[in-house]
Each structure stands twice: as structure tokens, then as C-alpha cells.
Design goal:
By secondary structure, the protein is of the alpha+beta class. It has helices at about 5-15, 20-30, 35-45, 75-90, 90-110, 110-120, 130-145, 215-225; strands at about 50-55, 55-60, 150-155, 160-175, 180-185, 190-195, 200-205.
Length: about 220
């Protein structure tokens, strides 16, 4: 673990409001008690309001806010790649949010990391996904979040159409295809629907989680299949 990461985690543990001994922190961080004493001393010298003493324990004075997070070059590159992939393959709402988040992060970075945004040579072209598909993803995702039933017109691989009312449980991305995990009220069972084959979507009111119809149970059934 990088020392910067260890110091950050030390502060996070102390923010819980309980008095923690050096032994407890050492076990959490997988370092020696001597290292904890040294880290706490350095944090205090840097202005972090840690209260307590060796042999008794430490806590963090309430109201302390952490400084802005700093990323390594590899972490910054991963964020850039992730934002590009969300922008290319995700819904319109998530794509815009990813772009805005990256812009906010950029303003807080030092120059040597800021340039990493433009030096990352991994791209995700977006010509393959239509605006209609992005909007459909947004609609389905909001239904998952708000637990809204959806009446859908679904086109199967053999071009046969069917109408279903489903409880949307989660979205899954498979490289080129998005699928919806759902409880189908027609079949009284879990079903998976490709988003690109849903021809029409109409909200049909809310639903509550019921035993046997949740995402956890969908995943359990999928693993056992």
C-alpha cells in the first residue's frame, strides 16, 4: 500500500468517531504499531486534528474535512478510459455525467496529471450506438432505480413480437449488447431482455420488492443454471 493511501485510510478510520488504539489501527492497515505512531505524528504535524496519545488511543476532532483526493497516473488513466467507455456505450444521462465529472476532476489536478487526460491512447468510438438507444437505456435505468413496472413490446431473434409487463431489476453490459434482468409478470419467472430488441416502453406504475422476485435471487438462479 502506498504511504499516501495508508495515511488516507488512517484518517478514514479515525473519522468514525471512536477512540482507536495503535494496535487496532496497525491490524486494520497491516503495518506495525511503530508505523502507526509515525503516521499519526506526521498527520498531526501536517495539520490534521488528531486527539489522543500513545497507549490510550486516537480519534479525529469532529468537523474535519479531507483535502481533495489525489490520483496516481494509473488511476487517472483508468478514470479517463472509464469515462470514455460510459460516454460511448452508456445512456445519454450517464455519458453527460461522466464528461462533467472528468472536467471537474481535471480542474483539481496538478499539471503533470492533467496532461494524462490527453495522453491516454485508449478510445471508445460511439458511432455504433444511436441516440434512440441511449435514450432507451436512460428510460430503463430510471425504471430500475424507481422500481417502475414497464410494459414492453419485445422483438425476438426470429422477429416474433410479444408484449410483456416486467419488473426491471438491473442492467448488464456484455461488450456490445445491453440486457435487462427482470421479473416477467406474464411468465411468472425471471427473464433477460436485450435492450436493442425492445421496440416500445411504457411505464406502468411502481412495485415493491417481493421475496422470490429480487435481483439477488435473479443472480442466484443465473449462477445455478
Amino acid at each position: 500500500m502506498r504511504r499516501a493511501d495508508r495515511l488516507f485510510k488512517t484518517i478514514q478510520f479515525l473519522r468514525l468517531g471512536r477512540v482507536l488504539t495503535a494496535r487496532h489501527l496497525a491490524a486494520k492497515l497491516e503495518v506495525s504499531e511503530r508505523t502507526v505512531y509515525r503516521d499519526v505524528r506526521d498527520l498531526v504535524l501536517s495539520g490534521v486534528p488528531i486527539e489522543g496519545e500513545a497507549g490510550v488511543g486516537y480519534t479525529l476532532r469532529g468537523g474535519y474535512d479531507l483535502p481533495p483526493l489525489m490520483f496516481s497516473e494509473a488511476e487517472m488513466e483508468a478514470l479517463v478510459i472509464g469515462a470514455r467507455m460510459v460516454g460511448a456505450w452508456g445512456g445519454k444521462g450517464h455519458g453527460t455525467a461522466a464528461e462533467m465529472a472528468l472536467a471537474k476532476i481535471e480542474t483539481a489536478l496538478p499539471a503533470y496529471l492533467r496532461k494524462k487526460i490527453y495522453e491516454t491512447m485508449v478510445f471508445s468510438p460511439s458511432f455504433h450506438i444511436t441516440t434512440q438507444m441511449k435514450e432507451r437505456l436512460d428510460t430503463v435505468y430510471q425504471a430500475v432505480l424507481r422500481k417502475t413496472r414497464l410494459a414492453i413490446r419485445y422483438v425476438k431473434e426470429n422477429s416474433i413480437q410479444s408484449r410483456r409487463t416486467v419488473r426491471p431489476l438491473g442492467l448488464f453490459f456484455w461488450g456490445k449488447v445491453w440486457t435487462l434482468a427482470a421479473w416477467c409478470e406474464l411468465r411468472k419467472d425471471f427473464r433477460t431482455f436485450r435492450i436493442d430488441r425492445i421496440a416500445k416502453i411504457t411505464p406502468r406504475g411502481g412495485f415493491k420488492d417481493e421475496q422470490g422476485k429480487t435481483l439477488e435471487e435473479y443472480l442466484k438462479n443465473a449462477c445455478e443454471a
